[in-house]
Amino acid sequence: MKELEERIAREGRVFAGDVLKVDGFLNHQMDPALFRAMAREWRRLFPEEVTKILTVEASGIGLACVAGEEFGCPVLFAKKSRTRNIAGSVYTAPVESYTHGGVYTILCAKEYLLPTDKVLLLDDFLANGNALLGLLDLCAQAGAAVVGAGVAVEKAYQPGGERVRARGVRVEALARIAAMSPDEGVRFC
Ligand code: 5GP
Q1: What pTM does this model have?
Q2: 82 pLDDT band (50/70/90 cuts)?
Q3: Does the first or last residue of the chain, that is N or C, have fewer Cβ atoms within 10 Å of its Cβ?
């Protein structure tokens, strides 16, 4: 998606440790007009029936919410918890954090993720794939069907895309990065 690539090229900054900072329009301050255009693009790419959008807090929520309006369905975000033993009616999955290191648990209430759901997964970045694999795990526990996964930015030189696609999930990224470095910036696929 040209508009997103241009925005990344103009405002994104690459930090050591393979982190692209896009705090001006995606991860801290958010641009709703850009989110709307992104949501429309995902709708075009996923014309199938979608009954629920599933993301993970926190950065995915804004994007997912605008997309939910476009798809006309509710948006569910998996919560992050540091508690290991969570009682009650929740699905849980362990996720290795890309930006903070360590493993955290994501969880969602069983009553909001149903076997009848047709789920579109959404997230801001796809790097090693752990966040999306965690969401897939929640859907598998619920017996929900996964329509596909939309991400804003796929760092295509990292293994996440391959890992998620190997699970039979269609992944659509709106910007795909072939390489990036603090000195040379971002190169798109
Ligand atoms: P994964 O689980 O695919 O390794 O990483 C995805 C998660 O890590 C995303 O939800 C995102 O929050 C974070 N992430 C991964 N790479 C980047 C990056 O380059 N920049 C930012 N801002 N977040 C990233």
Answers
A1: 0.96
A2: low
A3: C
